[in-house]
Model the fold of this input.
Amino acid sequence: MKIGRITLSDRASSGVYEDLSGPEIERIVSGIFSMPCEWVRVLLPDDRMQIETTLRRLADEEGCTLIFTTGGTGPSARDVTPEATKAVLEKELPGFGEIMRMHSYEKVKTAILSRSTAGIRGRSLIINLPGRPSAIAECIPLIAPAIIEAIDHIAH
Done:
């Protein structure tokens, strides 16, 4: 299965610090799926047009079955991941973001500020994940059954 992962961070993309979230996505997902995964890795600044262009490329040209974004879902002016994602989706699946917020809120009360969403573009499932590696480790297993089911539905 071909999986895209996009880390969205002005500082990581400019080399100020290392991207830890993208590798964490790979670590967690590799433990969930029994099939081999081919990864397409992207590191971008928080720029809406670049995010939209990259999501379209990963879905339409690269043929990624699953695309994760990490970061850029908060309330700050530079957090534009949900807007970029919604702009390229054909069908929104807001339940992914809702369940991640509900689960995360139990541990971190500021999780309610997340605006993560998910949806379908063609035969690709796109999911906005939190930016913190620890939150990624908590959220992916939580939504894994729905990921598997959604992939099965959009494959046909």
Remarks:
- Residues 2-154 form a domain with the Molybdenum Cofactor Biosythetic Enzyme; Chain A fold (CATH 3.40.980.10).
- The beta strands are 2-8, 38-44, 66-70, 91-92, 118-121, 124-129.
- The helical segments are 10-13, 21-32, 48-61, 81-88, 95-107, 133-154.
- The mean pLDDT is 95.
